[in-house]
Amino acid sequence: MSDAGSDEFDDDRSKLGEYEGGRNEAGERHGVGKAVLPNGDTYQGHYEKGKRHGEGTYRFKNGSKYVGDYYQNMKHGQGTFYYPDGSKYEGSWVEDLRQGHGVYTYPNGDTYDGEWLHHMRQGQGIYHYHETGSKFKGSWVNGKMESAGEYIHSNHRYKGNFVNSNPYGPGKYVFDIGCEQHGEYHQAEQPATGEENDKNMKAQRSPYPGSREGYLSLGGAEEVLLLPLYTTADEQCVA
C-alpha cells in the first residue's frame, strides 16, 4: 500500500517528524519518500520497512550533507559527506564510519586518497599538500604515518621509515639530478606555537629546496615542529 501526503499514518510525527512518501501494508515508510525530522534535518530517498535504506540525501541543519547509500538507517556503501567547514569525504562507508577506500579533501585544500578504517586513515594512502605540491605516499596507522613511506617533493624525495608521522631511523634523499644522500633520522617534537618557533623555523627546516620536513600539517590541523637530527652517512651521484 502506498500513501503520499495523507495524514492517515502520521501518528508517529512527534517522534519521527513529518513524512511524505510511500508506505507498506504495515504502515511503515517504504519506497521513496521525504522526511523532515524533529531536529530540523531532512532526508529524501529510499526507505525499507521504516528505515533509510538504499540511495538518499540527508541534509543536516548545521549545513552538512550526505549523498549516498544507506543500509538500515546507517551510511553504508558508497557516499559523499560534505562537512560544514568545507571539507569533503567521498568513498566507502561501513555502518556510519569511513571505511575502505576514500578521498578526503580538507578545508586547506590538502587531500588524502587511500584506505580508511573506523573513520581513521589506515593502510596505504597518499597525502597531497596543496600549498607546496609535496606528497606523502606510504602506510598509515590510526591516522598517522607509520612504517615505510616517502615524501615526494618537486626536485627530490625522501624514502625511509616513519613513526608517529615523523621520519625516524635509516633513510635516504633521492635527488632528480642523480644524487642520493643516505643517513639516519633521530628527532623530538613539540607544539609549533609562538615566537620561539618563529626564531627556530629557519634552523629546523630541511636544507633541501622544496622540502617541508621541518613542519608538518595534516588537514590544516595543529602544526608540529620537528627537530630533526639527520646524520649523513654517505652521498652518491650518478655521473
Automatic annotation (TrEMBL):
Keyword annotations: Repeat
Biased composition (Basic and acidic residues): 12-31
GO cellular component term of the entry, any: nucleus
Region (Disordered): 1-56, 187-210
The keyword Repeat appears for this protein: yes
Keyword presence, Thylakoid: no
SMART domains: MORN
InterPro entries: MORN
Compositionally biased intervals (Acidic residues): 1-11
Biological process annotations from GO: axoneme assembly; spermatid development
PANTHER family recorded: RADIAL SPOKE HEAD 1 HOMOLOG
Protein name as it appears in the record: Radial spoke head 1 homolog
Organism the protein comes from: Dicentrarchus labrax (European seabass)
